[in-house]
Task: inverse folding
């Protein structure tokens, strides 16, 4: 177990947990709201029309994914975004974007080569036969 009490997870497991948490529109809305700064759970509950139980379920999912942190201040929980955790999602997306970009660049090169090699054939196909009437 880690210091936080969670089982150690692989980077892939962490990405899966983050994507699963972000797959929910209400959770993305909570994340978006928290980009303005930390807040308390009662204040967050006022912003969203969730029951306390639903808000807690969303926060637990976001916490389990490592996207938000809660700390108890008196009897109220303060909730903060952990933006550093999104770096793993950003890095994964950048890897995919780079691979697609490279594939599209190679496709463009192949299409250019095909276009250049097909050009003389097109010119010959459009020239009239010497024996054909004009």
Result:
């Amino acid at each position: 177990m880690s210091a936080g009490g969670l089982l150690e997870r692989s980077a892939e497991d962490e990405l899966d947990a983050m994507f699963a948490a972000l797959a929910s529109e209400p959770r993305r809305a909570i994340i978006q709201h928290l980009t303005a700064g930390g807040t308390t759970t009662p204040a967050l509950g006022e912003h969203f029309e969730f029951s306390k139980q639903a808000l807690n379920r969303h926060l637990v999912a976001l916490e389990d994914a490592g996207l938000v942190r809660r700390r108890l201040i008196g009897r109220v929980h303060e909730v903060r975004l952990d933006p550093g955790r999104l770096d793993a999602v950003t890095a994964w997306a950048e890897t995919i974007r780079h691979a697609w970009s490279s594939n599209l660049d190679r496709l463009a090169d192949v299409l250019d080569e095909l276009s250049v090699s097909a050009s003389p054939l097109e010119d010959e196909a459009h020239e009239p036969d010497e024996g054909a009437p004009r």
In short: The helical segments are 11-22, 25-34, 41-47, 52-64, 86-126. Residues 120 and 126 are 10 Å apart (CA to CA). Confidence is low (pLDDT under 50) at residues 1-5.
